[in-house]
Design brief:
Shape: globular
Strand content: 15-25%
Distance between the termini: 51 Å
Largest sheet: 7 strands, mixed
Number of helices: 14
Order of helices and strands: EHEHEHEHEEHEHHHHHHHEHEEHE
Number of strands: 11
Radius of gyration: 25 Å
Oligomer: single chain
Structural class: alpha/beta
């Protein structure tokens, strides 16, 4: 841009543009902020060169694997050689201290971002958390605030060090416990069968845990590896986690009334007191709501419908069809497909006539209100 003192970017440069988050960010900057986006990725021979990014990008975003990010930033600092003065550098890795320190070696303004979700199917981060580490920010502050607003995320401000300490618990501990569960389930397969054989016996807790395990095992393994190995606060957390499990193992192995009393005092009572009543009440309510949702989603007496026209009144027209056919709804939930379509899953009360549901579905399809999905 002609006057960088304006701090209003025209060009965004993304290092790692061929990665999943790089592609999502490219669409976001282009579609929502109408900005030109250029990107470099070693996996894409046709991408822009680092020199082009340093020459042309007003805002530079690092979206690379955690283990490579600090050294990669250091190389950009070296190549930039002061050209970055007056510009803004961002990163979107899951560990913040080392990347932010690397960016601070530049003369750019520096903010570390951590969207607490994999690249969503939705066009924004609405309903999701993003941690914001404003390490060196002055002239770009209004634009960063506007970016956070446009992303529609629930933004939490933190220092990079505090972020990494939190991520040892919020991410690394959660992943570690679920990967350990996956290992135990694998070891029991010769006796009890695969996960599919276990699911008929599921509780809501087991279903939620196996859903998280499936999520972890379905995404990029390098991300989960780096979250464990790239955060210096993870090792001491794992030591405490193993200690808690060893305590439980010892108590169950002892098996007497004294062990039971210690279990109630240490693992139930002390933890209950530490969490506190309001947090327990809120968490228990969340679990109950999720349990109802799982029950709704397993209801077989249901239809999924896509509404092709995203306009006020579309959903009302759809529901009116079922009303005209005398069909009462038990639940309705929306979800988004990998392609970005919003689907409504509609459950019907027990005893609803199959012929009436079929007739309503046919009318929905024929009228163009929606597209019924199998």
């Amino acid at each position: 841009m002609s006057d960088r003192s304006e701090r209003a970017p025209r060009t965004i440069g993304i290092v790692g543009s061929a990665g999943a988050y790089g592609r999502w960010l490219t669409r976001f900057f282009q579609d929502h902020l109408q900005l030109r986006v250029i990107g470099h990725d070693p996996a894409d021979a046709g991408s822009h060169t680092p020199q082009q990014l340093l020459d042309e990008a007003d805002v530079l975003v690092f979206s690379a694997p955690i283990r490579h990010t600090p050294a990669l930033i250091g190389e950009y600092v070296r190549q930039s050689a002061g050209r970055e003065r007056g510009r803004l550098w961002l990163d979107v890795t899951s560990v913040k201290d080392a990347p932010v320190q690397a960016m601070l070696a530049s003369q750019a303004e520096v903010v570390g971002l951590h969207p607490m979700t994999a690249p969503p199917k939705a066009p924004t981060l609405k309903g999701r958390v993003m941690v914001v580490c404003e390490a060196r920010l002055q002239h770009w502050q209004p634009w960063v605030d506007a970016l956070c607003a446009a992303l529609q995320a629930e933004c939490v401000r933190a220092t990079p060090q505090h972020h990494d300490q939190m991520m040892a618990l919020v991410q690394a501990m959660v992943h570690a416990t679920h990967l350990a569960q996956a290992g135990v389930l694998r070891e029991y397969q010769p006796q009890l069968g695969t996960l599919a054989a276990m699911m008929p016996y599921r509780s809501a807790s087991f279903e939620l845990d196996t859903a998280i395990i499936s999520r972890i095992l379905s995404l990029n393994p390098a991300i989960y590896e780096d979250i464990q190995f790239g955060n210096p606060h993870v090792a001491p957390m794992l030591e405490r986690l193993v200690g808690q499990l060893q305590r439980l193992q010892a108590q169950v192995g002892q098996g007497d009334d004294a062990a039971r009393s210690a279990f109630r005092e240490q693992l139930l009572g002390a933890n209950r007191d530490a969490f506190g009543g309001p947090a327990l009440e809120a968490g228990n309510y969340t679990f109950e709501r999720v349990g109802y949702l799982l029950a709704d989603l397993t209801e077989r007496n249901a239809l999924s419908v896509h509404l092709p026209e995203d306009r006020p009144g579309s959903l009302r027209e759809l529901l009116n069809v079922f009303e005209q056919h005398g069909i009462s709804l038990a639940s309705i939930h929306s979800s988004r497909t990998p392609g970005g379509e919003v689907h409504f899953r509609i459950g019907f009360v027990a005893g609803s006539a199959a012929a009436s549901i079929a007739a309503a579905a046919a009318e929905v399809d024929a009228s163009g209100i929606g597209r019924v999905l199998l």
